Amino acid sequence: MKINLLHVTEFNLITKHFTRPTSSTALGIGDDAALLRVADGVELVVTTDMLVSGTHFFADADPFLLGHKALAVNLSDLAAMGATPRWATLALSLPQADEHWLSEFSRGFFALAEQFYVALVGGDTTRGALNVCVTAMGEAPRGAALRRDGAQVGDDIWVSGQLGDAALALAHLNGEATLSEPDFAACASRLHRPEPRVALGLALRGIANSAIDVSDGLLADLGHILNRSRVAAEIAFADLPVSDALRPHCSQPVGMRCLLAGGDDYELCFTAPPANRARLAALATKVLNLPLTRIGVITAGDGCAVRAADGSVIDMKATGYDHFR
After folding, report:
1. 317 pLDDT exceeds 80?
2. Which of 76, 163, 263, 304 has CB 3.0 to 4.6 Å from 196, enough for a Cys bridge?
3. CATH class for the region spanning 2-141
């Protein structure tokens, strides 16, 4: 059922779909601003992501999955900083007040929020083209947050999980690749329902020298670490972790692009000293049950060389998603 915005109020929508009791705030939704209790000895970690219809998701996207993803991409940023998620705000621009859409969106949003004990403490709604903007806040012990500028020459480069599946799902939808039904379903799940690696980010404090989440493509996001740390990198293409769905496409341009420059992975890429390899192996198998793969090394200089099995450098024209390119 669709209800014209003239027949409902913004505050009714907020109260009905987005107001939940919170125990981690001095004051939550219902006032001009929230009051947050930040623990002594910690730093507040804040991130914002905007999802725009037609750019980040299709106009007919499943609202439950969109609610999940809107929060997940922000929690992924907190994970990359080694922060514990605590609070979020949500701003929605809506073409109309569709009660079913709002109910499903909020259900997806709060399902993930409850998984990570995140309290929604404020936001805004307005009429306009469909856009979703979430600001997420977390905490990290003072001086312990992971950053992009800490990579050291000699560090190993690692990634979690597998890369390229989300981009492969999009390539299938755009007619650039052909997947079987089961393979597409698996890849589409990675595209629409990413898993923020919060537990990994917390575990990497004191182990990793730098970290970032892979949202715009491996080369683009690793490039941010290299630029901020003023170092270079070499990556072994054969060592990149790929799924069974992507593997047959890896020798083709579309597969290479998905793997190296595809967005929406929301895995963590991080660097760590070689001395920490055993700790990371134990973390992957005994604690997180999450694959962690060593894919390269930090070197002196600038830029990133992706090497084929024969040692030659793979020439990649695309490095990742850029809104203005």
Report:
1. no
2. 76
3. alpha beta
Residues in the chain: 325
Quote the CA–CA distance of 90 and 260 in Å, as a whole number: 31
- 306 pLDDT band (50/70/90 cuts)? very high
Cα 214–chain centre separation: 7
Q: What token pair was written down for 179?
A: 């997947």
First to last CA, the chain: 39
- State whether residue 71 is helix, strand or coil: helix
Global pTM value:
0.89
Domain ranges in the chain are: 2-141, 156-307
In sequence order, what are the beta bridge partners of 2? 98
CA-based torsion, 307, 313, 317, 319: positive or negative: positive
Q: Which of 77, 323, 103 is nearest to 213 (CA)?
A: 77
Domain 156-307 part of CATH 3.90.650.10: yes
- Give pLDDT tens digits for 267-304: 999 999 999 999 999 999 999 999 999 999 999 999 99
Residue bearing tokens 């929020």: 113
Which of 2-11, 41-50, 106-115, 246-255 shows the lowest per-residue confidence on average (mean pLDDT)?
2-11
pLDDT digits (tens, 9 = 90+) for 155-189: 999 999 999 999 999 999 999 999 999 999 999 99
CB within 8 Å of 310: residues ≥ 6 apart: none
